[in-house]
Design goal:
35% of the residues lie in helices and 26% in strands. Helix 1 packs parallel to helix 9. 42% of the residues are buried.
């Protein structure tokens, strides 16, 4: 039976230059491989060792990139190893099969959201009214499913985030702050639901997962084994659960460690 490996990407496997956390002396820094270019500029990296591990993982398991990125943002990434047959984008709103959206899955997600939570327009308008231009840089809607802000993190009031989270919870939405992005996402829009669908289609009887943010918690809870790095929302809040390993590594070296754990567990079955 195949092993399914579902992993978040940003700040879990791949890292922007600001998130690398290269705290060692320069001469001991790991060699990096750029895996994403945006507007002619390098954007995301992993270590060369991680690249080799990911290539090996593609031969040992069904690897499923599982991201909150839109499809367009995901398709900018060029990961080493065989192209994934499945990918989860928009936090579970789109299931890609050989790079193409599964229309039936997307329709089922839309129906579930319409029945279970406040409409996107209401949440989008609330953010537009309450966000302060002093720290707001961009306001975006992603795939017609959720909304997010790009903010100046050091200027963002913690109390405003807490008030937003409480307001959103009463409407069936969740709030997640990841780096300079603040997400508002419908609670029924989950990575775990899409990954369960991939497990059903592939016949996988063991699911491994990794992630760093509150939007990854449902994915980790749904897996048989999971890992979180020593940075991110989950680490900051001390989040843990049975079957979840909290790693001490931070930054790009955490991504390398996660891939080692994936490969070891996949080979053991």
């Amino acid at each position: 039976m195949p092993v399914l490996v579902a992993s978040d990407l940003d700040r879990t496997l791949i890292y922007s230059s600001a998130a690398l956390a290269l705290t060692m002396p320069d001469a001991r820094a790991p060699r990096l491989l750029c895996v994403e270019v945006h507007e002619a500029k390098p954007l995301s990296y992993l270590t060369e060792t991680a690249a080799q591990l990911l290539t090996e993982l593609g031969d040992a398991a069904v690897f499923v990139p599982t991201t909150t990125r839109t499809r367009k943002q995901y398709q900018r990434i060029s990961l080493p190893g065989p192209p994934p047959a499945y990918a989860v984008c928009a936090n579970g709103g789109h299931l890609l099969v050989d790079g193409v959206t599964d229309a039936d899955w997307h329709a089922r997600v839309q129906a579930r959201l319409a029945a279970a939570c406040a409409p996107l327009a209401e949440v989008h308008d609330h953010l537009a009214r309450t966000a302060d231009p002093a720290w707001l840089r961009k306001h975006r809607v992603a795939e017609g499913l959720f909304t997010y802000l790009v903010v100046e993190r050091e200027l963002l009031p913690e109390e405003w985030v807490k008030e937003l989270a409480a307001w959103a919870q009463g409407r069936g939405w969740a709030v997640s702050l990841q780096g300079r992005k603040l997400y508002a996402v419908p609670r029924p829009l989950t990575k775990s639901a899409a990954v369960r669908e991939v497990a059903r289609r592939t016949g996988a009887d063991l699911t491994l997962a990794a992630g760093d943010s509150l939007l990854d918690a449902d994915l980790l809870l749904a897996a048989d084994r999971g890992w979180r790095p020593g940075h991110g929302e989950l680490a900051d809040t001390g989040w843990t659960a049975p079957g979840i390993t909290a790693l001490p590594e931070r930054g790009v070296l955490a991504g390398e460690r996660i891939l080692r754990e994936f490969l070891k567990s996949a080979r053991q079955g």
